[in-house]
Amino acid sequence: MSRNNSFVKNGFLAVFYALLVSCFVVGICEVRFPSFFTIDDSQNEYLGFLRQYGQTWLSGEIPFITKNIFIGDNAMVELQRGIFAPQNILASLVTCLIANPLVTGWFYALCNVFICCISGYIIGRSLEMSRDISLLLGFSIAINPVFLYQYAGPWWNAANGHAWSLLAIATYCQLRQRITAGAVIANFATTLVLLASGWPHGFIGYLAVVAGFSCVDLAYGDPLKAVFRRCVPLLLAGIAAIPVYSEYVFLHPLLNRATGWENADNFMVPSLSQLLVTFSPTYYEFMNYFGGYKSVFIPVGFSTLFALPVAIFFRTSVRDRVLTACLVILGMTTALALMPSQMGILRWPLRFVPYVSVFAAITTFYVFSKRDVVESSFRRNVFFGITALLFVVSASKNVFERPKVVALELLTSIALVAVWFLYARSKKVSGKDIGLIIPAAIPAFSLLLMLASMPSLGRIYLPVNVLPAHVSVPAAVNMQGNLLSFVPWGREHPKEAADLQSSLFGYYNIRAINGYSPNGQDYTDAILTHDTSHTIFKPDDIIPKLASAVMLPGNPCLFDLFAVSSMVVSSDTYQKYHHDLLACGYHKVATAQSGMLYLSTPKAYPSNLAYSTQTGVKVERETANSMTFSVPAHTAPVQMVLSRQWWPGYTARGLNCKVNVSSFQDVLVQVDVPAGCAGKLTVSYFPHTWPLALGCLLVGMLGLVIFLWQLSRERKLQLILQMR
């Protein structure tokens, strides 16, 4: 009973500790740089789509499609948005219901830092570290520099995936201790959420950890059956998650995602020395990063200040199974972090660096927990020599570009000596646990050192917009349709629609062609040409194409089929294509403060029905995934074009005749109604592969039930045998 009470007490303490850590980390980062957790792609992509997704969830639908954002509209191929991940569902509701654009970033950061911290605690306890050392491990993992700077602010999906991968690793470590029903369910659930988060690097990192532990366990004599059984929840979760990925795999030939195997000038590839100096929160190097080859003032490979003292003064042995596994995993993750810049559909090996740092921290604190200190003058000389060399090298590299790094590096050296003095001397070793307050000051101090050097990636390396709760649109601008913006890049302080870019239009509920998509759609991208995922459109390529007449009754411009009611163009573009735009009905109606021009047509497109050969067709209802039409009696076939991006999966129902739903020029949705067929017609989208793929979800769940039943049966059999 006392053991159960201790378990519950420590569990509550761990949760409370993780809450304090998450509040401290998020608070101190926001104080150092307002909007620390809302910069770059979190604004360019996620805010706009999350608000649209939240509105769709609240209406009772699954947000497969966003009807108000054209580019990147299909969430089933934009895996990075992870619409089924619990955090993303909650974040979409938060974004939809709260006007402050920073709240979503705070929500994600609090959740993910908490998950990282509690994962570190579970991993530590599963590897038989003490309570206090496990809590210290959790704090150290939660301030991982790549996670904190590169993920939590710009790449929310990466932060989600990384956090859930750590929790999946933690539950796997529990399985290694003992296979129980609770551990199996926890590992299945966390792995399933990890897969739903849409962060492939997180799942690959998790697989590397499982593979490393499994290989070492086999080498140390564990039966193959036992090792395999630990992997069963992972395999079942993989089967259950097939519906998340099936549409992407099926539609891959239609997508325009960059792929290949190339070095790409070592873009986002860390150096080995950055990974080796894992004990310094102020060690910086040059790297090919956004904006070119430059000093990146983030300690990319940092794990914990304990790493150097523990490596020098604590005895280790490769006979220790856990230590061997940690070293094997360190080698595997380091190899992943040093791979080429583009690896198939994966890119930028920097994304694997957090796993190197995490297992450097796990290895450090595992060795530290053994309290086997070895002191000698030689070891002290090595320690102080490395500390002094680190100061000289780091200070000399940065003294001209960023002089304050010299002072920060001096503080790092002092902190390393303090850790040695407090914890790496034999006279300081005792049977008691290390405590909570003083050890927690070490990762807290490390975080302060990092923030003192680099307050945020925003403005220095990555763009950041100071977003208002609302933006204005001039009254003369026709918003009864899609807005097509040719703004090169949005303004830092947007005040009106002409200051926005990418999917930010969706955040302000402005229907727009602009969006964000790293995957693209081949045929759409051939018409709406752009260089990056941000859909910074090229007017010289696009306007002549959209201004051309389409071979349909009435000879509409292609602009009309995209339901473009207004545009934002530069004055040079307007002068260059004035006659083409005028021929399609677009006139200058207003000038933005930035000097960009608003053009509008008198035509209105209150829904995504952009064109119909039968003017009597009315849209009765439109949702994210469907449109319901009232089709009047007619004697000739009716052809309709919807200003929705074409994807297999659109079907029609409701009429007593076969209605064909196909693609218009492989870009838009076309609906053909036979002559004499009238009534209510519904055109809707449902993932093309799901009628089969959803069966995999059932198979995975059924497999989990069977596996749990088998475990229960074996447990009962063991009890019967023990009673005999």
TrEMBL record:
Keywords: Membrane, Transmembrane, Transmembrane helix. The chain crosses the membrane at residues 12-33, 105-124, 133-149, 203-220, 232-251, 296-314, 321-340, 352-369, 381-400, 406-424, 436-457, 690-709. It comes from the Bacteria. This is YfhO family protein. It comes from Acetobacter pasteurianus NBRC 3278.
